[in-house]
């Protein structure tokens, strides 16, 4: 329910060929976002257009650099606006409701900036389909680390494949070089189990590990080069740690 001056921002001028001036529309949308009071959600400009002959595709670069998303659906088979769209957000034909809704879901699936989180993504749209990760700037015991993660709706990170192992080392490296870091793996009555309750066969124990005489909790540490390994340790020791959570479902 916009006021009259605010509503004027939605008026799109037309050129001599009766095509909407996409440039004016983007400028108007950016102005609305700039004046918005609620900035906790992702900013999206959705362009639905017939093929156009000319457009300055760099006009939305500043908007995209600030984290905004430009989604473009062209009503034809000729790609005339691929560079205007954000990576992964260019498509043809506005007639697949599932695809269109998926676009809106993906736009709103992102890691918040407070606390600072790092997205783990393996898709073109860079949605955090493999979670959001944060490494608080403290060293503490295993149990306190779990409590710190839980306080923000996270769990201690679980490592189920080598790709994620490498990613976790990158997150830990933001705190310092070759630091031991707790992972959500601990010894219970029935053996080791993950705090996310997932039953995984992946392990990355260092030679001679796990040595239960060293303790019931597990930390990972960079060894040589980009390699890392797991070690059993006393839960009362103080290490850095990594928290993770999944902000949304990108499959629905």
Description of the molecule:
The protein is of the alpha/beta class and 252 residues long. The protein has 2 domains: 4-107, Rossmann fold (3-Layer(aba) Sandwich); 118-245, Mannose-Binding Protein A, Chain A (Roll). It has helices at 4-7, 22-35, 61-65, 97-107, 142-151, 162-172, and strands at 44-49, 69-74, 90-92, 118-119, 132-134, 155-156, 181-188, 191-194, 217-222, 228-233, 240-241, 243-245. Strands 7, 8, 9, 10 and 11 form a 5-stranded mixed beta sheet that branches. A 4-stranded antiparallel beta sheet has the order 4-5-12-6, covered by helices on one side. A 3-stranded parallel beta sheet has the order 1-2-3, with helices on one face.
Brief rundown of the structure:
By secondary structure, the protein is of the alpha/beta class. It has helices at residues 4-7, 22-35, 61-65, 97-107, 142-151, 162-172; strands at 44-49, 69-74, 90-92, 118-119, 132-134, 155-156, 181-188, 191-194, 217-222, 228-233, 240-241, 243-245. Helix content is 22%, strand content 20%.
Secondary structure layout plus pairing:
Layout (H helix, E strand, L loop, with lengths): L3 H4 L14 H14 L8 E6 L11 H5 L3 E6 L15 E3 L4 H11 L10 E2 L12 E3 L7 H10 L3 E2 L5 H11 L8 E8 L2 E4 L22 E6 L5 E6 L6 E2 L1 E3 L7
Parallel strand pairs: 1-2, 2-3, 7-11
Antiparallel strand pairs: 4-5, 5-12, 6-12, 7-8, 7-9, 9-10
Query: SSE order, as H and E?
Result: HHEHEEHEEHEHEEEEEE
Specify the oligomeric state: single chain
Q: For this structure, what is the CATH class of the largest domain?
A: Alpha Beta
Shape: elongated
Number of strands: 12
Helix content: 10-25%
